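Researcher: We plan to redesign the surface later, but first we want a full-length starting point. Tokens attached.
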């Protein structure tokens, strides 16, 4: 994803039309994300600044220790640096979206969707973007070995873009879940005979659909029974033919045993 594409993507998002500064949750969410961002920088990223002098020792998201003794900072070390932060950011995204939804339900804030979108925007602007920008600064300092300006700064547009994709996916799935829950609630009200005219109409449609389904099921069962009877008749015909053949064979053997077959044959050959 190029820089221009990322700028266009940000421009296309539903920004301040949600709340701007009027949301009662915005200041709290923003402050929480700022603190989280600073904690990640301090505890997980800043230790990498000492890579060239004494190496780095830091715990990853799963509690495993990343211990690199320093020395040459090549592509493999850079890959470790930029990949180990991913689960921290993904976990923060999921938790903060969940917290926003729970807060909305606890305070009776409706609809929840604008608050979810607002939190997603804050996660982008106050967590994802600054974290990767700071990582680009650290990466440049490590490669510059005391002279950061001697090397080109890494472009982290792709890393930011991939994390924003994950953020958008989580946000969209949560919003779809909210809408699906509202639909289920309306359906339940219709079944109980409550609600306004629209709900009752929806319930009537469901009743008609159920009756059509039941009629189709009855017809299908009758067709299956008729097929079974037809198979049974065919089977009986086959069994009857077999029995007649067996009886005929037995009679022939009996007649031959008593000489009747030869006598009958001579009568017709005279």
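Model: Full-length starting sequence:
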């Amino acid at each position: 994803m190029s820089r221009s594409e990322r700028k266009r993507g940000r421009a296309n998002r539903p920004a301040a039309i949600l709340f701007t500064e009027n949301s009662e949750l915005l200041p709290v969410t923003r402050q929480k994300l700022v603190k989280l961002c600073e904690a990640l920088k301090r505890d997980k990223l800043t230790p990498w600044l000492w890579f060239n002098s004494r190496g780095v020792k830091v715990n990853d998201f799963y509690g495993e220790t990343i211990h690199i003794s320093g020395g040459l900072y090549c592509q493999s070390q850079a890959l470790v640096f930029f990949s180990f932060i991913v689960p921290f950011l993904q976990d923060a995204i999921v938790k903060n979206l969940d917290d926003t939804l729970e807060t909305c339900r606890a305070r009776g804030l409706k609809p929840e969707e604008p608050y979810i979108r607002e939190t997603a925007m804050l996660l982008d602007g106050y967590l994802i973007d600054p974290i990767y920008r700071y990582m680009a600064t650290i990466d440049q300092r490590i490669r510059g070995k005391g002279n950061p300006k001697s090397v080109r700064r890494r472009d982290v547009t792709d890393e930011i873009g991939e994390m924003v994709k994950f953020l958008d996916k989580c946000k969209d799935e949560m919003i779809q879940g909210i809408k699906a829950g509202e639909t289920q609630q309306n359906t339940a009200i219709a079944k109980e005979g409550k609600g306004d005219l629209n709900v009752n109409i929806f319930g009537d449609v469901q009743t008609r659909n159920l009756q059509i389904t039941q009629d189709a099921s009855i017809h299908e069962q009758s067709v299956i029974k008729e097929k079974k009877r037809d198979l049974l008749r065919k089977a009986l015909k086959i069994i009857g033919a077999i029995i007649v053949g067996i009886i005929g064979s037995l009679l022939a053997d009996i007649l031959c045993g008593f000489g009747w077959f030869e006598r009958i044959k001579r009568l017709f050959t005279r």
